[in-house]
Every structure is written in structure tokens, then in C-alpha cells.
Amino acid sequence: IHRIAEIRLNDRFGAEPRLGNAVLDAADRLARHSEPPFAEQGQLCVTYLTLPHQAVAQDLALAMREAGFDEVAIDALGNVVGLLHASRPDAPRLLTGSHYDTVRNAGRHDGRLGVLATIEAVRQLRQEGRRLPFALELVAFSEEEGQRYAATFLSSSALVGRFDPAWLDQRDADGIRLQDALRAAGHPGTLGSIEALRRDPARYLGYVELHIEQGPVLCELDLPLGVVTSINGSRRYTGEILGLASHAGTTPMDRRRDAAAAAAELVLAVEREALARPGTVGTVGLLEVPGGSINVVPGRCRFSLDLRAGDDAARDALDGAVRAALASICDRRGLQHTLTPTVVASAAPCAPAWQARWASAVEALGLPVHRLPSGAGHDAMKIHEALPQAMLFVRGGNLGISHNPLETVSNDDADLAVRALRALLDGLSHE
Ligand code: HGY
Ligand code: MN
Ligand code: MN
Ligand code: MN
Question: According to its UniProt record, which protein family does this protein belong to (predicted)?
């Protein structure tokens, strides 16, 4: 298929040096920036507003300028925004983007592939001296993963007027408020400066996002690209089970208030309830005994919940079952618990017209069109609240593993990602 695509492509866009190399080399360069202690172990972690995060923003701004964006700026939330002017003034804009923050011990393509592929597509357009009949606005979103602050999709929320003012008072694990972290990074940190980032939907044609699939489907089908039909919704929580710390040697087994044993039952309950509901997933990603000791029965156990499904009813059914299981485990064991919702994201169907544009782009490359839902959340599901959106997935190697340093994208597939975006832009230009 690649050979056919290569031949077909060259007579269409002209023989270009392998665009994929440029994308993957840029990803490697950005991955130099990482936070301690992950950096010391050669691992990637770039969470919101840390010094490595700010260094990545600077690198992206420079890359956008070098590629030929007419305007480049880092905004009040650290989003790196590049604008390629249209062939005529007051033309509408196409919004595109993805995020540049990462999870802990991350791969180097989650989010960043979409940003870097767009930069290469713009570089190619400028080298060809081409202007589009619409402006192209690329946003490298600064905070999507919600690692340092429990404010997932923080940046894309601001663009659609959904920034929650309470987020400014959120504290990270070191007690630093988001507002103070913004100021320390040189931003105003005021609600006004953030609300000013809201985009007027009337100025935009829509939103498209290129992203790695982060799953095994395209790998197993041996397809480099896939058109996303919808993005799964989620409910996330942080919680704590409260028992009674006591001596590990003297407390009889039938007289314990062991918070960790209850949490272990909860983990298995999440697995059981999600397995019983095809199409749903449930994860306890964080689990810890704060201040625990080897010879103390755990009195407290902190945990997180990440519950997802393709539609909100299924998501809420799983949510109800898990919360009921937590209550019954704690009742039976005589323990208390707290549960704090951190994210509620509704399932976001991708706009049919924009799915069709991605499908035409994939066909223009001589590739078959495969449509699939997204199990992962993306900025597109936030932008969905203001603009029609659609995503194109790029195959990940290693069976699409992600949120793991084994995350990988082949040169060929990165190359096809850039060319697919070019094909979408060209198709849109002729509408
Ligand atoms: O968790 C997710 O779905 C994405 O990585 N934000
Ligand atoms: Mn991610
Ligand atoms: Mn992502
Ligand atoms: Mn002792």
C-alpha cells in the first residue's frame, strides 16, 4: 500500500523529502525536555508550567516561526499558537491542534504528533509559495492530561469558554496554586486574561486534530490511518478510604480496619463491572497508602478512578455500579470513604462533514478508509462544545501502546500523516 501511496503521492504533491523524518526528529528534540526525577532515568514527563514545559513551548514557537507561520505567540495559558494567513483578508479560519504536555514516563508522540505534522505541512505550503483560501490556526495546547492539576483539557476548555475559575485555586502536590504557577511562568494568571482566549466560533470553519491512535486497531488491520467517528466520554475521581492505622503484629485479622484491603477489593470491583459491560473501561491508575509503614495496618488509602464508555448512558451505568461497590465494601468493613469528581467529559461524536473530509484525504493517498471510535480523550472533545470537529488517527507501532515510552510511530506513517493533512487542506481549498 505504501508503495502505491508513494507513487500516487509523488504525482500529486511533488516528490518531497520524507516529511516523516522531520516530524520524528522534531519529536526527539522536544523529548530532551523532561522533569526530574524522570529526566535522570531518561524518561519523559512534561507537566503543566514546569521549566521543561516552558522550554517545549519556546521550541515549538521557534519551530512554527521557522516553518513560516505568519504570526506565532505563546498565550496566557502557555498555548503556542501559530497563524498562517489566508490568500485573502477576513477569510474564515480552520482550527487545528493537539497538546504538548505529557503523562509521567510518557511516549513522545501523544499530542505532539499532531502539532509537529501540522508544522511540516505549513513548511511545505510555504516552500511551494501556496496560500490557502482560509487561515490555518494551529494551537499546541499546553494542558490536556491533567497530571499536575486535576484540570484535564484546561487549555482547550478556555478556547471554548469553559475554563472553570475554581481551577485557579487548585493546588498541586507541592501545594502550589495554579494561579501562582501561571505567574511564576510569566503569565498574568488572571481570570480575565484566560477568558480573553475564548474563540468566536463564527470565525471558524471547524476543528481537525491529528493524533496517534493509542490503541491496537490500526496495527492489527495493518492500516496507517483511521478516521475517528466519536470520542469516548469519561468520569474521573480521586478518592480516599479511611480505616484505622494499627499495629501489624498485634491487631487480630478479624479486628482490622484495613483501608488498603478495601481498596484492593475496589480495584477488582472496577475490573469486574467494566468487564461485565462491553465497550466500557475502568482504571484505578493511582493507589497509595499515604505515610504508610511496613508494620502498620493501613489506616488510609488514596485512589483514582477513570471510567469511560462510548456513550454517556453506558459511562454513567458503570459509574453507578462502581460507586455502589465502593459503598458496600466500606460498609461491610466498617470504613469511611470520600470521592471527589475531577473530570466529567461527555462522549463527542465527530462531525460527519469533517469525517468525510478526512476520509477523502485518506482516499487521496490511495489508502482504504477505516473508521473507528476513540477510547482516549482528546482536546477535540472540548472544542466539540463550540465547533464541528473530527480527528484522524495515525497508527502506533508496538500494537499502539501509549502512555508508555514504548509508544512509537514509523517514519512512513508520520509521512502519511502530514500528507493526509495536506490532502485535507487541499480538498477544503477546492470546496
Ligand atoms: O486520558 C486520555 O484519554 C488522554 O490521554 N488525555
Ligand atoms: Mn494522553
Ligand atoms: Mn493525547
Ligand atoms: Mn514498635
Answer: Belongs to the peptidase M20 family.
CA of 115 to the centre of ligand 1 (A): 16
Q: Is the whole-model pTM more than 0.90?
A: yes
Task: Tally helices (H) and strands (E) across the chain.
Answer: 14, 16
Centre a 10 Å sphere on the Cβ of residue 65 and count the other Cβ atoms it contains: 13
Query: Of 45, 20, 26, whose CA–CA distance to 35 is shortest?
Result: 45
| C-alpha 90 to ligand 2 mean position (Å) | 35
| ipTM entry | 0.90
Alpha-carbon separation of residue 206 from 17, 141, 287, 422 (angstroms) = 30, 17, 40, 16
DSSP assigned state of 36: T
Locus of grid cell 515549538? 60
Long-range interactions of 40-43: CB distance < 8 A, separation 24+: 43/104, 43/105, 43/106, 43/405
* Closest ligand to the CA of 153: 1
E-only strand ranges, 62-122:
71-74, 80-84, 93-99
Distance CA 394, CA 107 (A): 14
Strands (E), 243-323: 246-247, 280-283, 287-288, 296-297, 300-309
Burial of 393 (0-12, 13-18, 19+ CB in 10 A): buried
319 lines ligand 1 (CB under 6 A): no
**Calpha distance 103→55 (Å, rounded):** 17
Three-class SS state of 319: helix
DSSP lists the bridge partners of residue 371 as 227
Q: What would the pLDDT profile of 122-157 be if each residue is shown by its tens digit?
A: 999 999 999 999 999 999 999 999 999 999 999 999
Distance CA 115, CA 41 (A): 26
Q: Which three cell numbers stand for residue 170?
A: 487548585
Task: Name the band, by pLDDT with cuts 50, 70 and 90, for residue 18.
Answer: confident
Q: How distant, in Å, are the alpha carbons of 81, 103, 158, 199, 245 from that of 383? A: 15, 21, 9, 10, 46
Q: Which of 375, 1, 369 is nearest to 213 (CA)?
A: 375
For a ligand 1 pocket test, name from 145, 230, 307, 402 the mutation site with the most ligand atoms within 8 angstroms of its C-beta.
145
